[in-house]
Every structure is written in structure tokens, then in C-alpha cells.
Amino acid sequence: MEKIRRTRLPQHASIKISAVTLAVLTLINQNQAMARQNQAPQAPQTPVTKIEITGSSIKRLATENALPLTTYKAEELEAQGLTTMSEVATSLVMGATNEPVGGGGGGTMINMRGLNTNRTLVLLNGRRLPNEAIGDSSINVDVVPMSAIERVEVLRDGASSIYGTDAIAGVVNFITRRTLNEIRLAASVVAPQRSGGGDQRRFSIAGGKGDLNKDGWNVYAAFDIQSRSSLMQKDRPELSNPDAIAQLGGSVFSTNTSGSSSSPANFTVYTNSKATTTTGNPYWATGCTSNYGAQYSLPSTKVSGSGIKTCILDPGLYPQLLPENKQTTLFSKGALRHGDNKLMTVEVLASESYIDALNPPQVFGAQTDYDKLNPGVRKPLFISKNSKWYPGGSGGVPAVAGVTGQDLALTWSLDELGPAGTDDRQNTNRLVVADEGEFMGWDYRVGFNAAMSKRRVSWKSGFVSTPKLYDGVANGILNPFGAQDATGQAYLNSIKVDDTNYRTASVKYFGPDFNLSRVLKELPGGSLSIAVGGDLHRETYTDSTSALSNDIVYKTSGTPGANPSGARTIAGLYVEIDAPLSKGLDLTFAARADHFSDFGSTVNPKASVRWEPHKAIMLRGTASTGFRAPTLPELYGTPRTKTPSTNRWDDPLLCPSTTPSQPNTGTLTSDPKYAGLNLDPARVCNTQLTILTGANPDLQPEKSRTLTAGIVLEPVRNMMLSFDIWDIRMKGTIAQITEETIFSDVNKYSNLFVRNPDGTLNYIVVTRLNMGGVHTRGIDTNFRYLLPTTSWGKFGVSMDGTYVNKYEGQNDVGGAWVDSVGRPGALATGSTSANTYIFRWRHNLRLSWNMGKFATQLSQSYTASYEDTNALPTQKFGQPYYNVIDSYIIYNLSANYRYSDKFRLSLGINNLLNVDPPLSNQRLSSRVVFAQNIAKPIGRAYTVKAEYSF
Q1: pLDDT-derived band of residue 54, with 50, 70 and 90 as boundaries?
Q2: Whole-number mean pLDDT of the chain?
């Protein structure tokens, strides 16, 4: 007897059950159907639709899929208290995705398996979205419209032969509603229990008209707007607790030190054009208050040595935990049936999102860069006795003993303009025109995708031109020691660059695609089917940074005056064959051939198997290879630039050390051939050396191999349990080599030290390189159980979990493999820093109860403990400042009541137990010390959502 799951049905039917759940329900239904057949005449079978499953181009039932696929329905996501796409992305247990904090202008990008965002393919309705523009390597999921989403399908094996073999880590496909013929309004608020900020607001309206089945057409639109307010660190003082910072190895703030840039400005006395040890501040004796409307600095209590009698900026004024952000998205879809049950669709997406970050005020003086084009060039900011603002002069600035007309080098923080605010704005637009139907026995799907993303970075407030500020002080117009007079204020206003866009980047993606599929013949297990398809697309990238940013330096990105760009054309063809050899055994083979205009051709196969040896057991497995070409910015982006190293080092040739990885352990060389150089120890020992950063046009593609094997069990009715082992190997990994890696073995990396003919160092190459490889392995598990009762409603429990057994990185081909599970140190790949965290275990556990119109759910999010980024790289277990982040558990509680078919009210509590974020030394220098990779600083928050349809 032919199984019911292979019956072909009308295209308009909809299936909203996950792939794994369908597998279980199918097994149950088969037994029940056979029992009924023995008791009564056979009734006509209820039709079941075959649909396109993420990862396959052949329409089939989800139960027939051999791929490890997880499906999340929109209502399931909202029941967990997830109100934004950013929260959906960070909740995926198979990912290592961080919600943007600080000034993360690129938005939220999904990082599956910890292999970085540029190896995770994100789709909307099975087609690509444009990448975020500056990096041009990853999708910002904040552009996806939450109110239009029907489900999210996560393909947990990589190297998709259908969508592209660059999906090494996996595929996430956001699928919108097929039709909508009513109007739906929704508004929600997330209000933290504690005041200060971090609250979220969301409003959406979605409406449509037309019945695709009756009228033959439907059109709908969904509009989303959501925002989050800023949260400052001073509103969460426990995150900068001095005792906690000291325990982590950080420097606890103390006034027993010398001030750097401050407001009013500090000074150093110069004699004969050279700095002396005499320092001070005209307002130190009066508590560093000056005549500002607020106090920005505190007096130093240091009693001897350089730096006494100076002022210190209050470190608690400006650090920001969460920036203000906002997303606005409009999605519209029209569908029209024509001809013999053919369907034409048009999709339009338009979105804008921004992140407005606050930074400490702009600083000027000897310890800050003056010229971004020449990093490390630092010019003192001098005030002379000719200025009326000179201490003891006519401007009223107090005189200072010992200051008798010498030039004073200033270190000045421009606090009177407030925090330095930046605006990072992103616009995404996409148009898709598609048609599908049947022609001469073939099912076809054709489409054209045109998409663009633009990102603009601006100085929003508190920025002025550095050279013009220097001129204003030198000419006696500006007062660095207090509030400006009318002339000074007018001059300060004239040199502002607020609301100036200094960097614009854009990417474009456009081209056609097609797919043809049909049944070839009948096999014992069903229909032998084939699909062939392909796509042709053009990618372009431009990134322009204004030369004006050379005058600002502070908090700018990009290279002033640079306009890097790149383009490529990619043509791909694929074939897929599905062979159900028997009722329980199904084999699928696929292969994809791609031709890159800049890297030639590559062919990558994929095979999968699905076997049901018993009605309660399904076995599945896949094998595939992948290929990821370097992104256009990796090849042609930021020009190669010389810049000071991040850390201080000893020049291994001119200041040799037996332990080069530990700075300040070297001694000036005694080699006679360098005697004529008159080496200055301050320039070659324990100093910032010159490094070369930027794009690398010599990069080569990465290659990968992925294996998965899984089992799905149905031990009892309404219960499903699955385990899927995955194993991913990469070689030729494109990564940013770190300074620490180079100095850990200076002999091995001697070729990266580029020297002048006399032996002095020109620069160290720290660009992206094709390095060694990555090998990661683990197990995904999924559990579902539903207990229906007659009088107490339905009780359910479900869990998604990922266990990572191995995450090894290799800096060089043939080099040592270093495992990073549960500790920092994964390869710095693409835009992800070297401190990527790979958690040993993560899970989401959900308990639900539904009865009548009422439903509630309690969810638990668990992250295993891991080793922190410790203050000193040499710290070991049991030593001071060695920090381990304990396992982190968060509970969310939600409940909703459906008053009618038209109105529903939802209430919830996020972080039910008000658990504080664990403290970390990831960002000790800025006093932001919570583990931002796993936690939010908001605390307990209450959610309210109301939905109405008509």
C-alpha cells in the first residue's frame, strides 16, 4: 500500500509543523490508519501537501527529509518572549551570536557553530538578502520583518548545494506568510524593572486582501517599527563594583594617580621645546570644578612624582552598556494565479535601522593621535603666554606657582560638548519577482532577485576638527580651562562636524535563478525525482571614507580619502536526485558547480540518506564539501595601512628576549653591526611597533568538508527524541593573525617582519591570511513531548540543545591544533575577534500548558561555564585573576489569553529570577565588565503585548 505521505496535493495547502515533529506524527498515523482499515471500509484519504524544504529543491514532505532541519513557528518564538529578530538570532543554541552592544553598528548577524557570521547563509523565502555593507560578508537579520514571519527553518548541516557552498556552518531561512486577508495590529513593550533605560517598544500593522484559492490573488503588507533606549553604566553601578574589578585583575579607579585628558585641561610645562616633569591643573586646588555647569573631573591625590596636582576624568560618567537603536521594516507580497494553476509573486522589502552610540568626549593633546593618515604622529596641544586663558592671564584662569610664561602642553577632554555621539545607519532594499507552476511535465520556479544595502556612519554630536581646535587654542580664542566666552563658543560652534556623514558603503546583489523538477519513474519506495537549477548573480561593493575623517581621528573607522571597491560575477548550476529505494530507505544526491569571475570554477557534491528500519526509528546522514571565496572587502577593502601595534612588544632583532611573547623582557642588542644605528631603547624595547593592516588581494578560497549522522526516535506516542552528530573540517581558513600569535613564535613568523636595509623594523604584517584550518564537532539534540488531557488541558515539554566536543584551530598548515571549547582563543575569522567563545553545552528548555483560551510557557536558557578572557594571558588555574564564568541560567515566563478570535493579550517576565549578568574582564579598560556574549545588563523586565485583528 502506498504511504499517505507521498500523496500529491494542491499547492495552496499549508504545513506548519516542524520537520522532526512530522517525522514522528507520520509514524503514528501509519499505525492508526492500518488499524482503521481492518475495522471499516476505507474512506478517501485526506490529502497532504508536498512543500519545498530548506536544503532541497524537490518538493516533498518534511518527513521525507534526510537533512537535520529545525523549524520554529512564529507563535513558538513569541511564546518564549522573543520580540525582535535580534533576540531570535541570539536564542539559537547552535549559534554563538551576540546581540550588538556598545557601538555594534553592523546589527545582529547569525554565527552558527562559532564559525563566524560570514560562513552562515541567511535567506528570506529561500533567496539571499544583501550583506551588511561595510563588511559585505554577513546578513543583518534586523532587516527581517517579524510581523510577516510564519516560521524559521534552520538547516544545521552546511555547504548547501542548492543555495551556495559558502554556507559552511549552515543555513537559516526566514519564511514569510504565504497570504494574508485581514488586518492585524500589534503593540508591545519591554519595561525593565529598574529605571535608567534599555526599554523596548514595538508596533506592527499587517494587512492584506484577496483569497488566493477563491479569487486567485492576494496582496498584503507588513510594517514593523521597534526601538530600544540607551542604558548607561552609571545606571547599573554593580557592574563596575571596585572590589569585583580588582578580583578580575582590573585596575580599580583611584584618585591616587596622575590625570590624562581632563576638563579643565591638565598641562605639562615645556622648557626649550622639551617636556619637564612639572605638571598641574589651574583648578586642582579648588577641586577641579572650574566654571562649568557640571563637574567632570576629580582632583588627583598623588603626592609626589610626575602627574601631581592634575585632574582625573570621572570614569563613571560616560560608559554605555546599550546604545539607542531602532529598526523600521516594510515588507509587501503580492500573489497572482494565472494560466493552468501557475503562481506569480512579487516581494518588496525596505528597511532602515540605526544604532546611536555614546562615547566619552573627544580628547586632544600629546597622548592622542593628531593625524589618522599617519598613525602614531602625536603633536602637543600648546597654549602660550600670549593667550588670555593662560594661567594667571586676563581671562581669569587661576595662576599656578612655577608657571611663569613657559609653553604648556595640554591634555584636554571636551566635556562641555557632552558625549561624542555616533550614528550608524543601515538601509536595505530588495525586490523579488518569481513565477512557479508546471510546464510539459516539469515543475518550474524562476525568479529575479535585486537587492541593495547601504550603510552610513556619521558624527552625530560632540565632534570638532582637531587642527582647527589646535589653532583656536594657539590663537587664544578657546579656553581649555573652563567654559567658553561668547567668542570662544562661536568659534567652537564653527568647527563642529556634527551631523556629518563621513563613511558610506554599499553592496548590490542581483540576478536570476531557476529550478526545474519532475518525477522520472516509480521505485518501490515512491517516485524517483530529479531537479536541476541554477543562478547567475552579480555582486558589487564600494566603501568611501571622507578625507575629513583625517581631521577627527577620534572614534572614526575606515581610511580617510580611500574609496575601495570590488565586483564579481558568480554562475552556478546544480542537480539533485531523490531515490526512495524502498518504503523505509531514501537516498538523495546533489552536486553544485560554480564559476567565479575572480577564482575560476569549483564543483561540490552532497549526499544524504534516510532510513526507517522500524516505525519508531529513523536514521539519517549527510556528507558534503564546501567552498567559500574571500569576500570583496577581504580582497579589496581597507587599503593596507601602517599603524601602531595594539600591544607593546620588544623588537625580536634589536631588543632580543628569550621570551618574546612577554614584553619588557628584552635587552638592547649588542650586535656590533647595529652599533652605528644609535638605537633608542624606548623605540625598540617594550614599545608599540608598526604593523601593517588592511585587505589582502592574494587571499585564496576556503574549503570544507561536513558530515552529519542522526537518529530520530518515537519511544511513546506524542514523544520525539533526536540526536544529530556533526563534524566540520575547514582548510585554508581566512583569518586575521594576531600579534600574540606572531610573538609566540617569532622564528616561525619571521617572514612577517619586514625590515629596512639597515635592519630597523619597517612593519609587521598583520593582514588577513590563509592560515591553517578549523575542525569542530558536536551533537545537536531535540526533545518534544505533548501530554493531552481531557480536563486539565495540554502539557508540553521541549528542549533544543547543542554539545560541542571539539573546536580546534590551526594557525598554519601542518601546525599544532589548539582546542578552544569552553575557553577563548578561537581563530580570529573575518569580523569576529580572537576571543570567540565556544560553549561546551547550550540548551533551551520549555514547559508549556494550554487550556481553552489560556496558554502559558516557562522557558529556561542555559549556557555552560567557560574560561574568561583573563587579564594576563599567562594566568593559569588557581592563580590570581584567573576567572571562570559560571554556568548562566535565565528563566522567562509568558502567558497569553485569547479573548476572542480577534483579540489576544500576552504578559511576560524576562529574566524571571532577576539574575545579574556574570562579570567578565572582556572590557575592563572601559569598565564594561559584564559577559556581553551571553547576558544582557537590563535585569528583570516585564513584557506586555496586545494583538487585534479585523
Answers
A1: low
A2: 86
| Highest mean pLDDT: which range of 235-239, 241-245, 703-707 | 703-707
Find the helix or strand (DSSP H, E) in which 909 lies: strand 903-910
Backbone phi and psi for residue 750, each to the nearest 5 degrees, phi listed first: -60, -25
Contact by Cβ (8 Å): 480, 264: yes
For 188, phi then psi, to 5°, come to: -145, 155
Burial label, 46 (beta-carbon count in 10 A; 0-12, 13-18, 19+) = exposed
Q: Which residue has the cell 530507505?
A: 585
Q: Residue 415 and residue 483: Cα distance in Å, rounded?
A: 10
Written as one string, the DSSP assignment of 253-321 is --SSS---SBSSPEEEEEETTEEEEEEE-TTGGGTS-TT-SS--EEE----SSTTTT-EEE-TTSS-EE
Instruction: Characterize the bridge pairing of strands 381-383 and 407-413.
Output: antiparallel
Which residue, chain included where needed, has cell 509568558?
Answer: 894
Q: What is the pLDDT of residue 667?
A: 94
Of 726, 677, 682, the residue nearest 704 (C-alpha): 726
**Pairing of the two strands 690-693 and 761-765:** parallel
Which three three-digit cell numbers place residue 99?
A: 546581540
Indicate the pLDDT class of residue 40, thresholds 50, 70 and 90. Answer: very low
**Residue 446 CB coordination number (10 Å):** 15
Distance between CA 829 and CA 771 in Å, rounded?
10
Residue 431: predicted pLDDT: 98
List 616's β-bridge partners, or say none: none
C-alpha cell of residue 165: 557552498
Which residues partner with 172 through β-bridges? 122, 154
Residue given cell 534599555 in the structure block: 198
This prediction's pTM: 0.86
pLDDT given for residue 878 in this prediction: 63
